[in-house]
Amino acid sequence: MALSSRVRGLEEEKNSLMERLEEEEERAKELNRQIQTLTQQLAELRKQSEEVNTAVEAGEETRRKLQRELDGATQRERQKDEEKERVERQRERLREEIEDMTLALQRERQNCTALEKRQKKFDQCLAEEKAVSARLADERDRAEADSREKETRYLALSRALQEAQDQREELERSNKQLRAEMEQLVNQQDDVGKNVHELERTRRTLETEAQNLRVQTQELEEELSEAENSRLRLEVTLQALKAQFEREISSSEEKGEEKRRALSKQVRELEIQLEEERTQRSQAVSSKKQLEAELQESEAQVEATGRGKEEAVKQLRRLQGQMKEILRELDETKLSRDEVIAQSKDSEKKIQTLEAEVLQLSEELSVSERQKRQAQQERDEMADEMVNSSSGRSVNALTEEKRRLEARVVQLEEELEEEQNNSELLAERQRKTTLQVETLTVQLQGERTLAQKAESSREQLERQNKELKTRLGEMEGAVRGKHRLSVAALEAKIDSMEEQLEQERHQIVSRRFTEPICLNPQSSPKETVAGKHSLNREKTSSRTRL
What we know:
Layout lengths: L1 H186 L8 H192 L7 H118 L12 H21 L1
Helix pairs in contact: 1-2, 1-3, 2-3, 3-4
């Protein structure tokens, strides 16, 4: 009975050992599945680590690209600063040119005032010349009137002389006739004795009249000779006066014509100069207004450029802050990556250790299975021996077998306990590995999140950078286009003004070789020439200052 109970106990122990062996087999299978799962997770971790490395490298490349773009934006900003400084210098130059043109305009106004004064002086000289011409014309009229009066008197004296000569001839004829009558009367004295006394009286009367006529004739001849002399003197004087008057008239007319032509020429030149001065003044005023408008436009463009620059600087600073944040996140990601890599290396080492332990446990499990089969075989043998025990084995042999079986059971219990301890240790290690894998998974998800954030930030920065580039390109194109147009217009104006100045210089040089014209008839030629040269020098200096 004791042996039967012992055999049953051994059977129960054997069954329990079999159950424990089955449990150990299940645990070994579960461990194999967990090892496979861990191997897959390790492969995924390696893949994720490679992805993280790729993302980090892409982030590094993005950082370098953004750094290059930042350097390019800084360079463009520096170029914009240089362009702004150049525009400022050009604005200062335009302001100085406007001030110079204002001064030149004031000088031109002063020149116009001086020209107007000279025009008034010229008008005064012209009025004086007209008065002199009128005075000469009056003197000529008076000389012509005196000449006509003297000629009338000469004609009257000539007629009186002619009448006296006629009377003398008549008296001579009467005297001759009386003498003839007297001779006839003397010859006829005998016949005409009675009328001797009457004839004598008549003869004496006639002689007296003849004497009176002779005296009158002599007086008339003297008067006639005096009148003839006066006429000759008057004719000589009249001819001299006529010649002098004609010379004076011709000289005066020539001088007046020359003066008139010269004054007309000078008036035309002064009118042309005045018109040119007015045109230049109007052009200078319009140029000044246009330059002021262009200066205001340039200042507005500079202010707009400054506002755009400030906006770009703000965006650049914001991008620099975002860049620093991204760089900090990239550094943190790099540190996390290094930590993940270190942890993955540790996990790989631990997994390799676990794989070695799993292999060892597999070997131990195979050994346990062999021992189990051996125990089953021994059990079968014991059963056979128990069946054959009825054949009369001795009690000593059974006792020995019992001790041997008990020792074997103790050994199996120790091995089972050791296997249990190993299984518990393996389960603990598996739990720790699972926790580590979960931790690595969480960290990897965090790294993925950071990588996604970095990627989204990079894309956003790229979009902002593209927008900034587009805006900067548009602003630079607009500013450069307007600047080119304003510079071209200013250069064209400057060229036209230089051409006008060159033409005026040529005109002034050509005027230097013209004959100076006397503005004041009472002034000397030297003073007139000196005044003309001083006027030319003033005009030349004013043009040169322009």
